[in-house]
């Protein structure tokens, strides 16, 4: 499947992995509305492409993402002269929609976090399935120090690290490094060099059936909203379908024959 044309991102596809690089290094990859729209378009396209098994999200120029683009805020301020608060509401809600899309992507979403991981960048880290931080990366929620609020990212941060820690970080705008991000449970790894860990994680992902991974991810996310009894009924149906499905049959046969299944490339 052909990926959409982009100007704020770099896209590289190899061995079932789509690497999406935020590419505005001159502003530490600050998230413009154009970048948000391009990311959503890439996620929509890749979601329908079964050959893409993992998404790697990272930033160019030594930084992940420094948050929202101040120029976009200025543009919204100009539009607000005629549109009122709706100009700001549209700009803010668009980023929340991106976070929803990223969280619900059927592929494994891996965030590689270097340099600035602030505001919206922090939010993107929180919707990843696996987060790998460079030890010296700088994390923070600076919104309140700017007189604004972390409106769209707040629910995702709470889900990731809990209400108590989110309150502390959001209400102090405190900065912290990769080691502290690991302690908080925001990231899964904090490394001096991230590439070796990324290669290891991708190798692990390739051992898992892509359809089973997608179904498992959806099931895990559903635990946040659905009643337990309903969820267990649905899960039983999903399990039955998986057992007799193509991946289930191949996985079982591979185990019996003491070989790798076809997807384990």
Give an overview of the whole structure.
- With 265 residues, the chain is of the alpha/beta class.
- Helix content is 50%, strand content 15%.
- It is built from 11 helices and 9 strands.
- Strand 2 (17-22), helix 1 (33-47) and strand 3 form a beta-alpha-beta unit.
- The two termini are 20 Å apart.
- The model has no long low-confidence stretch (mean pLDDT 94).
Provide the fold topology.
Elements: E1 9-14, E2 17-22, H1 33-47, E3 54-59, H2 70-83, H3 86-103, E4 108-113, E5 116-118, H4 120-126, E6 130-134, E7 138-140, H5 154-161, H6 163-172, E8 175-176, H7 178-184, E9 189-191, H8 195-206, H9 210-222, H10 228-244, H11 246-256
Parallel strand pairs: 2-3, 3-4, 4-6, 5-7, 6-9
Antiparallel strand pairs: 1-2, 7-8
Helix pairs in contact: 1-3, 2-3, 5-6, 9-10
InterPro entries: ClpP/crotonase-like_dom_sf, Enoyl-CoA_hydra/iso, Enoyl-CoA_hydra_C, Enoyl-CoA_Hydratase/Isomerase
Protein name: Isohexenylglutaconyl-CoA hydratase
Family: Belongs to the enoyl-CoA hydratase/isomerase family.
Identify the CATH class of the largest domain: Alpha Beta
How much of the sequence is in beta strands? 15-25%
Structural class: alpha/beta
The tally of helices reads 11
Number of domains: 2
Largest sheet: 6 strands, mixed
Describe the structure using short key phrases.
single chain; 265 residues; alpha/beta; 2-enoyl-CoA Hydratase, Chain A, domain 1; 2 domains; six-stranded mixed beta sheet; three-stranded mixed beta sheet; 11 helices; 15% strand
